[in-house]
């Protein structure tokens, strides 16, 4: 629906193929048992408006931090990798956690393996932010695994 509204193309064949595509993906999701219950998804989506502003603020702060280090000198950048154990209980929570790390400038989620996330950090400050676990706590709260 969003694509339809933003594109402005209200042609019958596009609408029909869009509906068929959505139906097919829903069917596959149910058959492959990757479709979560409505109850859990609704609770997750209701908490999302509280998480997104916090994430946007962190992205902005990290942008300023990375820009400052790039403009200072190459010596102020200390690339490193950090391995952390997230506390999320669901694959959705784990994916949101890894994506939130990647969206924040100065950090990239490199790998998720056995409930561990390998993160590349640009500076000591960004690595410490990952180690402190603020994103982990926020995503666990979003997921509903902590209150």
In terms of topology, how is this protein built?
Layout: H1 2-7, H2 12-31, H3 38-72, E1 80-84, H4 91-103, E2 107-113, E3 116-121, H5 124-132, H6 134-143
Antiparallel strand pairs: 1-3, 2-3
Helix pairs in contact: 3-6, 4-6
- DSSP E strands, number: 3
Give the ordered list of helices and strands.
HHHEHEEHH
Give the helix proportion (percent range).
55-70%
> Span from first to last CA?
34 Å
In which order are the strands of the major sheet placed? 1-3-2
Number of helices: 6
Mean pLDDT: 87
Low-confidence stretches: none
Shape: globular
Structure notes:
By secondary structure, the chain is α+β, with helices and mostly antiparallel strands. The chain has 2 domains: 35 residues; 101 residues, no CATH class. It is 63% helix and 12% strand. It contains 6 helices and 3 strands, in the order αααβαββαα. It has a 3-stranded antiparallel β-sheet. β2 and β3 form a beta hairpin. α3 runs antiparallel to α6 and α4 runs antiparallel to α6.
């Amino acid at each position: 629906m969003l694509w339809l509204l933003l594109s402005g193309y209200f042609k019958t064949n596009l609408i029909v193929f869009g509906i068929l595509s959505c139906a097919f993906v829903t069917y596959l999701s149910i058959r492959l048992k990757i479709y979560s219950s409505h109850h859990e998804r609704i609770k997750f989506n209701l908490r999302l408006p509280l998480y997104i502003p916090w994430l946007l603020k962190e992205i902005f702060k990290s942008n300023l931090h990375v820009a400052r280090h790039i403009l200072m000198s190459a010596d102020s950048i200390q690339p490193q990798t950090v391995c952390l154990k997230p506390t999320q209980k669901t694959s959705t929570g784990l994916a949101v956690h890894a994506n939130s790390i990647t969206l924040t400038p100065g950090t990239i989620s490199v790998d998720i393996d056995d409930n561990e996330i390998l993160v590349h950090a640009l500076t000591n400050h960004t690595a410490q932010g990952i180690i402190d676990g603020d994103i982990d706590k926020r995503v666990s709260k979003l997921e509903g695994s902590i209150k």
